[in-house]
Write a sequence for this structure.
């Protein structure tokens, strides 16, 4: 069963406008399939126009105009969210109907069931002098349930020490100051088999 995916909050203003325009255009063209949208497509068109106008005004960095743009974006988000409920009801799990309305589909868990991709080489940022801390970051992956960060003193044959994180970054503490460490990371997905990144190194302050 396919699930509808709402436009993301991470979309830029322009991307959100393009998404809304696509939904309006496709649902208008498929008037037989979407006979009585709730809210009406006229409501979506009005919200989109208001947001587009507010974004143009906010381009001049006027504080009040920026606040209005934020408000109009929230209003457009709300209309799209309510409209998605109507489309979801009409689709009843049929992904082709969701796509016909201009919405996207969520990725199924099956698409993440294989070996996790190799994580990118992590970035290490030492903390203040004497802190014994290092901030480790890697690129996030949607299919990751957890991130496993590993470290050891560079050049040693010691076993790697692991630290799990629910985010693509974590702070490693209690490291020996003025020693050089090496770090690596792997995603942990449905398939628990590790696929470690290339290692990176950094001195601990």
């Amino acid at each position: 069963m396919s699930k509808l995916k709402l436009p993301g909050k991470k979309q830029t203003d322009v991307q959100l406008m393009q998404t809304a325009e696509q939904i309006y255009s496709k649902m208008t063209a498929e008037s037989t399939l979407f006979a009585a949208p709730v809210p009406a497509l006229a409501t979506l068109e009005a919200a989109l126009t208001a947001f587009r106008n507010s974004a143009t005004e906010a381009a001049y960095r006027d504080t009040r105009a920026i606040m209005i743009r934020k408000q109009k974006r929230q209003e457009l988000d709300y209309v799209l969210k309510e409209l998605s409920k109507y489309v979801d009801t009409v689709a009843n799990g049929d992904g082709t109907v969701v796509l016909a309305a201009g919405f996207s589909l969520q990725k199924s868990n099956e698409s993440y069931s294989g070996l996790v991709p190799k994580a990118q080489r992590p970035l290490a940022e030492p903390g203040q002098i004497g802190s014994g801390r290092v901030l480790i970051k890697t690129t996030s992956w949607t299919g990751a349930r957890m991130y496993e960060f590993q470290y050891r003193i560079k050049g040693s044959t010691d076993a790697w020490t692991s630290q799990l994180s629910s985010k693509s970054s974590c702070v490693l503490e209690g490291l020996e100051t003025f020693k050089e460490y090496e770090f690596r990371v792997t995603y942990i997905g449905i398939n628990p088999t590790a696929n470690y990144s290339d290692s990176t190194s950094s001195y601990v302050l």
Summary: The first strand starts at residue 4 and ends at 5.
